[in-house]
Amino acid sequence: MKIQEIKLVIDNLSLEEYEKYYFEKHPRASKKPIDNPYHPTINQWMIMKRPMMNALKQKWKDFIRWFIDNQGYSNLHIEKCEMKFITYYKTNRRHDIDNSCPKFILDGFSESGFIIDDDSKHITKITMECHVDKENPRTEIEVIIRQ
Prior knowledge:
By secondary structure, the chain is α+β, with helices and mostly antiparallel strands. The protein has one domain: CATH 3.30.1330.70. It has helices spanning about 10-25, 40-45, 50-70, 105-110; strands at about 5-10, 80-90, 125-130, 140-145. Helix 3 crosses helix 4 (about 105-110). The longest helix has 22 residues, at about 50-70. It is globular and about 45 Å long. The N and C termini lie close together (about 5 Å). InterPro entries: RusA-like_sf.
């Protein structure tokens, strides 16, 4: 069995690059599309009214599609993989690991063609870790491709 690993890092530099792209594409927009280099927690988005939640999900899918394309991984169509999400928050505030579900990122991976689908046939394992890095908040995603 051949194993390949891809490491993706979403950090503040990624967000700055995306903001340039986003504001060129949407010149009338004034608000940043993505606030932090980590996925909103389920506690944040599950209490939103449906249209607001869908708008947030769409912003993240658009960002992830851009991010994957920017990394050169669009239409990779990974068939079977495991993923490890390591989130580095900017505050020492308590973070429940189960609230860090990366749903919008996974949806963006599917839509970009990076993976075939985010179902259990194609992603066989997800591991999540949370840490604090006040100087460099980010999300590191390790994708272990199994062939």
